[in-house]
Write a structure and sequence with these properties.
The protein is of the alpha/beta class. It is 37% helix and 20% strand. The chain has two domains: 168 residues, 3-Layer(aba) Sandwich (Rossmann fold); 92 residues, Pantoate-beta-alanine ligase, C-terminal domain (Pantoate--beta-alanine Ligase, Chain: A,domain 2, 2-Layer Sandwich), CATH 3.30.1300.10. Strand 8 and strand 9 form a beta hairpin. The longest helix has 16 residues. It is globular and about 55 Å long. It starts with a strand and ends in a 7-residue tail after the last strand. The structure holds pantoate. The site of pantoate (PAF) has 10 residues, from strand 2 and helix 6.
Amino acid sequence: MLIVADRPGLKRALAAREEVALVPTMGNLHDGHLKLVELARGRSACVVVSIFVNPLQFGPSEDLATYPRTLAEDCAKLERAGASVVFAPSETVLYPRPQRVFVEPPPIAGDLCGAFRPGHFRGVATVVLKLFHLVGPRFAVFGKKDYQQLFIIRAMAEQLDVPVEIVAGETLRAADGLALSSRNGYLGPVERAQAPRLYQVLRECAQALTAGTRCADVEQAGRARLESHGWRVDYVAVRSQATLSPPVRGDTALVVLGAAWLGRTRLIDNVEVLIGEDSGL
Ligand code: PAF
């Protein structure tokens, strides 16, 4: 496995490669990331994993400074997982001059997480497009835990004609259901014991939808249940899988998404659900 930190190094590492699969990450890798690497290996013999904590996607009061940076451990895990190249650029390599040009993501980027993290998806889309240009992957793998991110990157790749196939990886969960996330490391023991409730509540919401409960009632009940256990809820929302907008009559493939705080840690998760055509929305 090659570890490269600059553009010429990346170019050399990829010179003889025909088809590349890219797994973009911010490091502090867990088994969920390694599962994405496995998925990438199923698509291409050459798997590039990028590790870069992207300042453009953090708000001024967010955790950019404290986000865990664990490059040596990450590289050891990636070596075992069979990655071919780790691209771990510094901020000056990726942004040699102050970034003045950004990807304008679709309007849905201002909704859900975007309503609470202004500019977040603009920063994500911009760095991901840069990585696509630098690596030139045939495939790029993203986790479904970041459902809105995946949706926006798909839209960007499609509408900006980026010749890459976006591959979605299922969310990997701890035995108690908590979605694996680098930010789980911020949770204290009491919070960690409470954390699986987000997934439980979203699953209950999905069950209520299949039983015919109206979306607005499902969202309200989900929020109330989390709040009653001490969570500060950003949103519990039922959306169409196809548009990420509120479902309209005839939408049968839905997703329940949630974002909520336990103390100082913000967790997100989602559950996909299929409902009957005649279910009340
Ligand atoms: O999901 C992440 O880790 C980041 O948002 C990504 C896609 C690597 C862009 O910085």
